[in-house]
Amino acid sequence: MLKLLNLKPGSDFDYTLLIFPHAGGSPNQYKAVVDYLPSSFGLMGVLLAGREGFYTEDQPDSLESLAVKLVIELSKVKTQQLVFWGHSMGALLAYETAQRLTGRLKHLFVSGHVAPHVQLPRAQRHLLNDAELKACLLELSGTPQSIMNNDEFMEMVLPMIRSDFKLCDTYEFKLANCNRLNCPITAFSGAEDVRMGSAGICEWSKYTKKDFKPYFYEGNHFFIFEQMFLVVQKLVQRIYFCQSLGDELNFVC
Q1: With 132 labelled, which of 28, 163, 236, 238 sits at a CA distance of 20 to 30 A?
Q2: Mean predicted confidence (pLDDT) in 149-155
């Protein structure tokens, strides 16, 4: 179903940053994060089945089931200072995992997705045919045209992307199961990501008992790959700032 990849050699880090990739994504697409992290940060990524040579018959049927599995896997990670960063679909998975993880999460970073209770148009993208699905990917501006024109490659990856889209399309936020997190939340978004919108991004403030800040960067849905240095720089600054305030940090901005 999933496993954790270690993206930075070493041990005894002060913090371990765990990346939750976007739909169709994989941890190694985020490996450039290593170049901008301080030496005190480790880096790991969530690898879902069907990519990077990881194949299994144990397929997830929901983001919630993935979150339950992740909590089990994280119990094997030694560090007590966990930081989550999820982009797009990964933001929802990071949130669902955070809801089930007690005590160890120091900060939740989300990017490219509105808060869980905010309703987005239900496009049911997993039901699109291949041509329609390709058009959807082009609209998101996350897949280079050269890759889209590679029919053999797209034939291999479209089922994986369709499976991920199904997890998003069928996700149902359950207010009764929602507890405000006891850690800060920081939200990043692309200023030109019209589908998400700034109002929906700021609604993440309702999910924490601690500090919340939104930041907007030039770019569309996949702005993080264009603005990686600035985003990671802000991520590190926010962790140190919020940790320096400690128990005094009980307000929402």
Answers
A1: 28
A2: 76
